[in-house]
Amino acid sequence: MAQYEEFTIDQGTDATIQLELVDQTGAKKNLVNHTVTAYLKKNYADSAGEATQFSSIVVSPATDGIVSLSLTNTQTDALRAGRYVYDVELSFLDDSSNTIVERILEGRIQVTPSVTK
After folding, report:
1. What DSSP string describes 16-39?
2. Pairing of strands 35-41, 52-53
3. 70-117 residue pLDDT tens
4. 84 neighbors 42 (Cβ within 8 angstroms)
5. Counting Cβ atoms within 10 Å, is residue 58 exposed (0-12), middle (13-18) or buried (19+)?
6. What mean pLDDT, rounded, does the chain reach?
7. Which pLDDT does position 49 carry in this prediction?
8. Is residue 72 domain-resident?
9. Quick one: which of 17, 31, 46, 78 could link to 62 by a disulfide (CB 3.0–4.6 Å)?
10. Which stretches within the chain are classed as H helix?
C-alpha cells in the first residue's frame, strides 16, 4: 500500500520533491534497475492527456534509495490554482523478466496562485 502525503506547490515556480525510500527493515532501498513514474491530475477520472508528468529520476548512486520528482516553472504556471491528486510508481523487471509495478506514494497537491506573472 502506498504512503499518503500532501504537498503545496507555488504556481509559476520550479518545484522539486525528494523521496528517501527505505525497505521494510529501514535500510536504504536499492533502486538499481528501477524506474520511477509520477503524474499530477486535477481529478482521478481525468484522461492521461490532462495529466502533468513529473520529471522523475533515481538519484545516483541508486543504492542510496533517493528519488527526485520535479516540475518546471512553465509546468506549474500552466496549472490552475487549486487541489490536485498525484501518485508515484516504481517499476523493475524481476528475475523472470516480468515488470513489477508498485505505487509508493500518493496524495494531494495544493497549487497556490501566483500574483507575479
Report:
1. EEEEE-B-TTSSBP--TT-EEEEE
2. antiparallel
3. 999 999 999 999 999 999 999 999 888 899 999 999 999 999 999 886
4. yes
5. buried
6. 95
7. 87
8. yes
9. 31
10. 73-78
The backbone torsions φ and ψ at residue 60, rounded to the nearest 5 degrees and listed phi first, read -80, 140
Examine residue 79 and state whether it is found in any structural domain, yes or no.
yes
Domain span at residue 37 reads 3-112
Nearest to 60 by CA among 93, 32, 23, 89: 32
Domain count, the chain: 1
What is the CATH classification number for the domain harbouring 63? 2.60.40.10
pTM score: 0.90
What residues does 35 pair with on adjacent strands?
A: 91
- Integer-rounded Cα radius of gyration of the chain: 15
At CA 86, angle to CA 6 and CA 41, rounded to 5?
Answer: 125
Q: Which residues of 63-73 are buried (b: 16+ CB within 10 A; e: fewer)?
A: eebbbebebee
Domain presence at residue 66: yes
CA-CA distances (angstroms) from residue 18 to 66, 93, 95?
7, 24, 29
